[in-house]
Amino acid sequence: MRLSHSLITLLGTLATCQSQPSPPSSMTILPSFTLPPSSSRPKFRYWFPDASVPPAAVASDIAELSAVSAGGLQFLGFYNQGFPPVSTDWSRYGFGTAAFKELLRVALKEAERYGLRVDIPLGPNTAAGVPAVPRTEGLAMELVMGSMSVNSTQTVRSVPQPKLDFNKGYLGGWVHEPENWGASELVSAVAGRVVRRNGKVVTLDGKSLVDVREAVSNGTGWRPSGQGEWVVFGVWERYSNERSCVSSARVEQGNWVGNGSWMVDHFSAAGAKKMTGFWDEELLDDEEVDGLLRKVGGYSWEDSMEMMAALWWTKGFVEKFKKNRGYDPRSYLPAFFQAKNLWNGYGEPYDTSYTIDGEPADGGKYAEDYRLTLSEGYRDYLRAHEEWANKRGMAHSTQPAYNMPLDMSASIPVVGAPELESLGFGESIENYRQFTGPAHLFGRNIISTEIGAQRGGAYAQPIPRLLGLFQDSFAAGVNTLVIHGMAYGGAYTGTTWPGYTPFQYEFCEMWGLRQPSWRHMNDTLLFASRVSEVLKTGVPKVDLAFLAWKHPWSARAVFPGGDLNAAGYTYEYLGPDNLASPEVEVKDGILAPDGPAYKALVIYGQTRISPSASAALLRFATAGLPIFIVGTVPNNTIGSVGQEAVAENMSRLTGGGFGHVKVLSTDRFNALVLRDADIFPKLSAESIDGAPNASQLYSVWRADQKTGLHLVYLLNRGAASTFSLSFTVDSDLIPYRLDPWTGEQSPVPRYLPTGDGVSMRLTLAKGQATIIGFKKTSEDRPPTYVVSHSSNLARIFYDNSGSLFAYVDDTSEASALLSTNAEAIVPEVSTSLPAPISLGPWNLSVESYSAPNTLPTSSVSPNRTVITVPAPLATLTPWTKIRGLERSSGVGIYRATVTLPAAPQGLELGYTIHLTGQVYNTVRIRVNGHVVPAIDPAAPGEGRDVSSFLKQGQNEVVVEVTSTLFNAVKARMNDVKSIGKGIHVPKYYSEVNWADFGLVGEVVVKSWRKFKLA
Is 866 exposed, middle or buried (0-12, 13-18, 19+ CB in 10 A)? Predict the structure, then answer.
């Protein structure tokens, strides 16, 4: 049957059956894609309990990382997150001791041996402190406050003493509390008249604030000048004496290195130098260790800040504040003690909080001024770290600002390799974009994430869930993964099978040999490595920038982006400080043309802006940048400075002098508004079937100006759908598809050139990702491709010589219109195609990973036994429904045979293998001993080509699946221990059902007619 080409599929769906024979090397566009370098491979946060562990066990763990294609590790001494019980003598085996140095030496040597990178946490656990002599310069400081109420009849003759105990909120017991010893130094003694009391909030008359320090210090005393209630405050600075890690109960006098670690001052360069100075003097004084670090060191590193204070402080804060804010803060210090100024805003430090009349209950502009000044000190801290790391051939990586009363968007560009975390960002693409925007704008090509931490119990995280976190991070432009984590695999005191488990089984995950899926981890890590390599190529290109001011930052959405996403627009967020930077320019109406090249700036629902950012908006508008102000106009300054400048700048911006500056209500802003302004996405998308629209299709675009290469990462988070995609690229570029699961790359075999780019259709399952690339061909003549075809021509591909082939799924005539304008005809045949074969029955054996009958603390070795299901399985069901496997964890091996008849005379057949059921964890297939290229767990049904593996007659198919270790741990949840303690949150196991694993659904071998088109 020959079909009229007016009735056939014009933009035929891009072939999803991968693993065709590889095209010639001249048809690849990113040589490093198949086997990316270690710099693009995921690293693991490697937790070891302390420096008492045998070096050989650490060396073995590092060898395992190399075996699964990891790129490196964060060498993190966990030390029970800094808390007792201290199972060994940490005065000998603590962070920074001689034993620690020797263990570091071993790790660096092994990393060099295997070509891995080592990131060095600058302290134990969260790396926020180091061993130090207490109460010395560079250690953490805080403000504390005391107060008393008086009236005009009372004379005050002493400054209220500080209240050292403050509200710890849910941080108590999670991080160390400041220790209430040592002197406090008076910073301010001030009094103010009470205007009103509203519950726990007291409003003071700002005009009444008076410095009483001299009066109460010289013995004359101070008495209120007016009627009513007054409050006298004493505000004091002190070292917080907060430990980041304890030591043993008995430490030799003078052994300050073995006396645990102390939080450093995070708001000045002095705090950073406290940490780096310790490394210089106590760890890197050894020439071999120093030399090894210079060879294999990746980053110096610090986790998100998890520390405590009534109010964070630093020496010289008052002087910095006066210089940058223009007034003396000491009279307003009581208004600084606010919930917003504590960790994650968990609550006010004292039972009563204070504000100034005319300001909101949270301290208003005065508290904002405090946060602005604190942020400036924090950036000094970051710069000092970066400078130190650079001198040693590394860069600094940290999780900047969030959880703290700091400006995250302003802090990100200061760090060489800024890092976010999937857990702290709510596992949200929208939240991730608030981090990646500042990094992209300032050319930070390493954007890292601590990924995979989830509450809900250790050993419970299946690989598809981890992959979902990978893919969402990639969809926001994150390009470096640090997996949380790998636990030390050797024996440790007080620890039973399955092994050392940080966080007492509360958080996942504990990757390593103890996990059944470790034997398949190579597939997952290579997938991630290939995407990372793509997202490190060239520079990002993003359609829109949104202005978002969050200070402090919180994990919440700024813009409901479904409409823009559905239309194909990409966007991310920038902060006021980012816009105000002199490095940021607009050229030809494009913001940051050599970087993300934003086509417009959107200010959505913002009420505040800094004077310098408002001035930048005027500069951008003058240079032709389209600006959309949606909802409110941000007419209010941030802090107390610059209101007049902000009002004038915003008035000029919105006064009608710029035709490309639009002020819209939120209900009027949508993709059509952008199109009407001739602002179009680089990629437009439409759902043809499946999802109602493309709102869950995410794209990330990278472009390399030197090579002319464009790469687009695509992720479908919605229902399985076929999308019509239009890419805006130069007309001489050829589209390629890069499969991150197999490493294969080849020209797209069917597409349609348009006036301004290329159109194609692409089918993606829910949770499936792929990569489309564009580059000029290195050949004199571009490869022939299909423009349109009949519906029964199902799969089109190039073979290893570059010839164009198709699979036809029936015996009818098929046709294809080629790019040469020739029509290829696949003739009808009278012989029937072999029917699809559902394999079975299956012989199943399971290598069970279970606990030994008794759980000694001298060994963490598992009890591995083989369970053979006695009768072949006619139907594939989860292990929970197979007798003898109901509570099993392990590796299942399924074996079946399939008999292929001879191909009908005159026909060449191709074969694909498909899985119709859910992949619970991981899967690998072997056909006649040949390993089938890696299966995407999100799309097991798309099929892999196995034509070269099958033969006429009998064939063996082996499917290997793995589970997590959850069921095995759940079975012994009352017995397992780590460092002498059991499971911290038993309900994560007791109240959760036994997990389903195994091979389910059907395994199908499908036959196709194979035909050469060109």
Answer: exposed
Can you tell me the distance from the alpha carbon of 498 to that of 978, in angstroms, rounded to the nearest whole number?
9
**Predicted local distance difference test score (pLDDT) of residue 179:** 95
Cα(733)–Cα(745) distance, rounded to whole angstroms? 15
CA–CA dist 651, 633 (Å, integer): 9
Residues linked to residue 230 through DSSP beta bridges, in sequence order: 150, 193
- The residue type found at 691 is A
The pLDDT tens digits of the residues spanning 248-266 come to: 877 888 889 999 999 999 9
Nearest to 646 by CA among 549, 544, 545: 549
**pLDDT digits over 650-694, tens only?**
999 999 999 999 999 999 999 999 999 999 999 999 999 988 899
What percent of the chain is helix, strand and coil (3-state, nearest 5)? 25, 30, 45
Q: How confident is the model at residue 861 (pLDDT cuts 50, 70, 90)?
A: confident
pLDDT at 761 > cutoff 90: yes
Q: What is the pTM of this model?
A: 0.96
**pLDDT tens profile 833-852:** 999 999 999 999 999 999 99
Spatial strand order of the sheet with 544-547 comes to: 571-574, 544-547, 600-604, 627-630, 661-664
Nearest Cα to Cα of residue 983 among 995, 966, 963: 966
Residue 780 is classified by DSSP as: S
> Tokens in use for 707?
């090579």
Which are the contacts of 458, defined by CB distance < 8 A and separation ≥ 6? 501, 503, 505, 506, 507, 508, 509, 510, 969
Residue 10: Cβ-neighbour burial (10 angstroms; 0-12, 13-18, 19+): middle
Pairwise CA distance, residues 749 & 736, whole Å: 8
Instruction: Please write down the HEC assignment for all residues of 884-927.
Output: CCCCCCEEEEEEEEEEECCCCCCCCEEEEEEECCCCCCEEEEEE
Distance of alpha carbon 835 from alpha carbon 674, whole angstroms: 51
Task: Report pLDDT digits (tens) over 876-915.
Answer: 999 999 999 999 999 999 999 999 998 888 889 999 999 9
Which DSSP symbol is given to 163?
Answer: B
User: Residue 207: which residues within 8 A CB-CB, separation 6 or more?
Assistant: none
Element (H, E) at 272: helix 269-278
Integer Cα distance of 708 and 596 in angstroms: 16
509 cis-preceded (ω within 30 degrees of 0): yes
Which tens digit of pLDDT belongs to each residue from 965-976?
999 999 999 999
First to last CA, the chain: 20
Instruction: Give yes or no for residue 165 having a pLDDT over 50.
Output: yes
Instruction: Tell me the average pLDDT across 89-105.
Output: 96
Q: Which of 75, 948, 936, 864 is nearest to 520 (CA)?
A: 936
Coil vs helix vs strand at 83:
coil
Measure the CA–CA gap between 473 and 451, rounded to whole angstroms.
9
Distance separating alpha carbons of residues 12 and 785, to the nearest angstrom: 11
Cα 184 to Cα 191: distance, rounded to the nearest angstrom: 20
C-alpha distance from residue 845 to each of 935, 994, 998 (Å): 21, 20, 11
Block residue for tokens 């991070």: 473
Structure tokens belonging to residue 721: 């759908």
Rounded Cα–Cα distance for residues 785 and 897 (Å): 37
Contact in structure between 233 and 190 (CB atoms under 8 Å)? yes
User: What is the SS3 assignment for 857?
Assistant: coil
**What is the percentage of the chain residues whose pLDDT exceeds 70?**
97
Query: DSSP string spanning 627-666?
Result: EEEESS---B-SSSS-HHHHHHHHHHHHSSS-TTEEEE-G
**Cis omega (within 30 of 0) for bond into 485:** yes
SS3 call for 121: strand
